[in-house]
Amino acid sequence: MDATPFEQIASLDRRIHDPARLAILTALSACERADFLFLLRITGLTKGNLSSHLSKLEEAGLVEIEKRFVEKKTQTLVRLSDAGRQSIESYWRDMEQIRESAARWPIQNAVPVLS
Amino acid sequence: METRDLERIRFITRHFNDLQGLRYGVPLGLILLAWQGPPLLRVAGAVGALALALGARRYYPRTFGAVEQQPAEPEMELYPASIYSPAGPIPRLAMPPRMAPVARRFLLTSLLAVIVFAYVLALPPGMFVVQGDESHPRLLPQTEPVYAPPFVSPWAYPYGREMMPPSMFRAVLAQTAYLLAGCLFLTLWLWRRRDLSQSPHLALAVLLLGLAALGTTLGFHVNREGTIDPLLDRLLPVLVYPGMAALLCGGALILAGLFDHWQLARTLGPSARVED
């Protein structure tokens, strides 16, 4: 028997499903690489939060971080690793499947909460 | 976080560089606007546009960060022909940079549009535009050929090629400006995946291509006495004077550039959310 939409949601990659990390990975999936300031702006996260999320993503092998000097200032460049690109693509495929199966899921299977 | 937020993030990231309106659209528009003025204004316009473009080049990375776009197609490590090089295989990085995909699409769209434009222009009935830039233009019907591109003349103009009069040349220049500017906006709209948020570019493309089409087909609207519909007559200066075309195209470029910049500034927001 196929898993219910709820079971499918539970099986999603937790490293990606967090809203902040999903925003970061979505931005990175649309470009070759982006710098820290851009990610800060596009996600609306604070510097500390963004650093923390990027560290977790780097530890998980989903992103690669490179630091370089531009006009005597450090520029942090972030890019998706090959594994990261595969993971985010797989995540979107899973989400699409969940959406389709949730639309097909019969309403009588729902637990009668109010009865 | 909703799906449309993620779509917005993806769109802004993908088009971050071509949404930098203060760097491209607005300076180009300023040059076009100043082009129809006296020489001093032209120089001032060009210098102002250059200063704005250079300033914006520093402003965007400092304010919004930097994004390196994905290559449009996977780059091969080596040029195929380089295996024949006596110096051995040559890395692609050593070669000159290739044209940006959006520029390639713009060139292709423009080329197709110019071909259609030239042929429609060449079809009879032709018309002459008379009077200079100082007064309201007047059209004269032209039964003889005024312009005959290759391949059209044998069947449309049996008497061969004739030169275009200066007033007609200026009209064609104005219509070509509308055509190219319209193609630019159309290409941008298609390049940005026909996103609903980019409908101002589509509106500008329709307006400018419509003016180009109307100008090109003026010969069909003029009768033997040279009179045309009063509404079209009012539009005539816009259709046949290059100065008016520069004004309209420049204004459109500035509007589009400011709109693009506004999209970036609205999505990437102020720096207030950044912690100390």
Protein described:
The complex is a heterodimer of chains A (115) and B (276). In chain A, strands 1-3-2 form a three-stranded antiparallel β-sheet. Chain A has 115 residues and is α+β, with helices and mostly antiparallel strands. Helix content of chain A is 57%, strand content 17%. Chain A is elongated. Chain A starts with a helix and ends in an 11-residue tail after the last helix. Chain A has a single domain (5-100), classed as Arc Repressor Mutant, subunit A (Orthogonal Bundle). Chain A has six helices and three strands. Chain B is mainly alpha-helical and 276 residues long. Chain B folds into two domains: 1-98 and 261-276, no CATH class; 100-240, no CATH class. Chain B is 58% helix and 4% strand. Chain B has helices spanning 3-14, 25-35, 39-64, 101-122, 153-156, 166-191, 199-216, 218-221, 230-240, 242-268, and strands spanning 67-68, 126-130, 138-142. The two termini of chain B are 25 Å apart. Mean pLDDT of chain B is 81; it is low at 153-160 and 271-276. β1 of chain A pairs antiparallel with β1 (67-68) of chain B.
Structural shape of chain B: elongated
- What's the β-strand tally of chain B? 3
Low-confidence stretches of chain B: 153-160, 271-276
Radius of gyration of chain B: 23 Å
Please give the number of β-strands of chain A.
3
Q: Strand pairing plus helix content of chain A: what structural class?
A: alpha+beta
Strand order of the largest sheet of chain B: 2-3
Unreliable stretches of chain A (pLDDT < 50, length at least 5) are: none
